[in-house]
Inverse folding.
């Protein structure tokens, strides 16, 4: 008897995570891979409101992408998130599925999980 094939799962790479964030963040422009905000560092993305209809508080909204558990733990244990939080008004951690658990993400950081199911591939966990 034939075993059903597993569904095809695309590899999660930073570009695909940022593409999901861009689809989710209507009313914002996503600046990718910028060092303009962080000295001695580089945010994977900065969200900039593009119109008056955007109801965000003024400020800099940073996005840090982690596509592997090792990369996530290195950022968490190395103080990367704390350094970035000191420079932006709001920081989002964006990962693919299975990188970390919501409970592992510091409370002051928003957590976005980008997958490949419905809802434009994004599951905002916080």
């Amino acid at each position: 008897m034939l075993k059903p094939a597993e569904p095809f799962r695309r590899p999660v790479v930073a570009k695909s995570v940022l593409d999901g964030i861009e689809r989710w963040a209507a009313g914002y422009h996503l600046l990718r891979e910028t060092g303009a905000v962080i000295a001695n560092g580089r945010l994977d993305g900065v969200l900039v409101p593009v119109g008056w209809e955007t109801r965000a508080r003024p400020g800099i909204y940073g996005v840090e992408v982690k596509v592997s558990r090792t990369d996530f733990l290195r950022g968490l244990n190395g103080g990367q998130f704390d350094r970035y939080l000191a420079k932006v008004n709001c920081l989002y951690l964006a990962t693919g599925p299975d990188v970390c658990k919501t409970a592992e993400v510091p409370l002051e950081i928003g957590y976005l999980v980008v997958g490949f199911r419905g809802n434009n591939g994004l599951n905002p966990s916080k």
Remarks:
- The two ends are 43 Å apart (CA to CA).
- The chain has one domain: 14-124.
- The helical segments are 14-24, 69-77, 80-85.
- The CA atoms of residues 53 and 83 lie 31 Å apart.
